[in-house]
Model the fold of this input.
Amino acid sequence: MQKKTGARSEFSAALHQVANERNLDPEVVVDAIKQAILAAFKKDHPESHSEEEVYDVSLDSGTGEARIHDSAKKDITPPGFGRIAAMTAKQVILQKVREAEKSNVIGECEKRLGTLVSGTIIRIIGGEVVVEIDAGKLGRIEAVIPRDQQVATEDYRLNQRLTFLMHSIRDSLRGREVVVSRADPNLIKELFRREVPEVNSGAVEIKAIARDPGSRTKIAVYSNQSGIDPVGSCVGQKGVRVQAVISEINGEKIDITQFSDDLEKFVASALAPATGLTVKINAKKEVAEVTAPADQLSLAIGREGQNAKLAGRLCNLHIDIKGTSERKEDTVSNDDKPQISDPNDQPSV
Done:
């Protein structure tokens, strides 16, 4: 074959154009063409094809002409093969290019897992929400929100635009799919990273998150740099930063507390808005025993035990709460609702 020293050949130019338009490696396109030619050869010339033989395809970089060779390097290309197999080869090429494109998209999305992405709801099928997301240089691609990544209190509507967390890649009957989330706690973390420069730069660190999606979230923040108030940085002047996050999650309440290595101090802070609490830590049992003034007991426990449960998850401890005038502990765990015992009264929380 004569070596091309001048301008790029027509075939080579077309090859690179297809690769560039679809953001593919040219070698992937060439491989697809070769596989298409072998598939067409097997289908249209079964009398010449042997399953035990290993075939090779050579492509003329100037004309794009394909030749088939057996393991002995003998040219066994059937007469008129190009015309007969053209349609078959075209279909296989299109299929391989689509598969390569999807694989490329999935690969790029895997690099972006755990980051924020904006998208628009385009379909709702069987309880799962299909969204079209902005994927940067890849353009707009489809992703899915499974039931377990949806927020029960949110009403999803067609053409609704939301911010999602790029959650994972899953295998389904439709092949590999991009999964995005509205319920993952890391959605809150990434929203704060976007809205709070100190979090984005690492000056303020989000140490822990406990979330009841659609209702309430508690986050613990910390900074080892002097002069930086981690809670104030996340709240922002007149609450502008935390309100920007809240608006993205449809009004879900957010409690911001300061992380501390002193577990007693951390637990008391995590149980805000309750104040005046006495905390004792049983490190062996991983239990925090909390005594609350009578007027702070309901605040510490929260409605249906939510405040205590979220605080327990935030601190990674089982929390037992009792009132100062009570004889029996009011136990609140991360799984059980609070049970309040009093000789004279049983208030509902």
Residues 1-8, 327-331, 336-349 have pLDDT under 50 and may be disordered. The chain has four domains: 10-109, 114-183, 184-259, 262-349.
